[in-house]
From TrEMBL:
MF terms (GO), sorted A to Z: transferase activity
The name this protein goes by in its record: Phosphotransferase enzyme family protein
Source species taxonomy: Bacteria, Bacillati, Actinomycetota, Actinomycetes, Kitasatosporales
UniProt key word Transferase: yes
Residues annotated as transmembrane: none
Coiled-coil zones: none
SUPFAM superfamilies reported for this sequence: Protein kinase-like (PK-like)
Domain Aminoglycoside phosphotransferase: 41-212
InterPro entries in the record: Aminoglycoside_PTrfase, Kinase-like_dom_sf
Amino acid sequence: MEEVEIVVAHSERATLRVGGVFLKVDADQARLDTEAEAMALAPVPTPEILWRKPSVLALAALPGAALGRLGAPSTAPPAAWAAAGAAIRTLHDAPLPPWTGRRRQGPAELAAELDRECGALVARGILPAGLVARNRRLAEGALRAWTPVFAHGDLQVDHVFTDGAGVTGVLDWSEAGPGPALFDLATFTVGHQERLGDVLSGYGAGVDPAAVRAWWSLRALLGVRWLVDHGFDPFAPGCEVDALTRP
């Protein structure tokens, strides 16, 4: 008898797996609509939509395995990471989707959000002031104007599946829309920073590794408090706080 596996769950949404079917349950129907539209437009492999109902999207499982997991070393070969980089570039080179996207802030709005989050992290005692201040300075490198691309918006490493050296699919498109390319690259590599060179070898020219590092700090500072408040552990090995404490 097959069991129900809780892949991820919090107050906003949950993903369940039953055999070869994933059920995404979301309190925000707009996120599910965005996910379906993005998968239809994205020029990279995506899961098959089996059916849609209000607040629920059923997806077929992808072949292969996730490229990695936060907090665990990846055994995937460099060629698989390069293939993922090439797939990300294909997505970023595609025409922009016809919606505004959730990550529509410009540098000024991001800077204001970053200041609020840094203040909250220190005021609540989540992180020491020195660590926050150092990474706030590093994050300055991300607060520059960018040209929007077709961005995934939540490109965690376990959302990309590979089989050997090829990408078999990319999951979880509910945050997709026009956005900064470097946010996707930083999200993808933040827990496996030693793989950045492999990813960029597939992604191609035009990316400064130092700029990706700035986005590692920005992304982590913006995410730690949300993770704590929703029952996740950003202090786990390889996760957000690790990214902040690395030299």
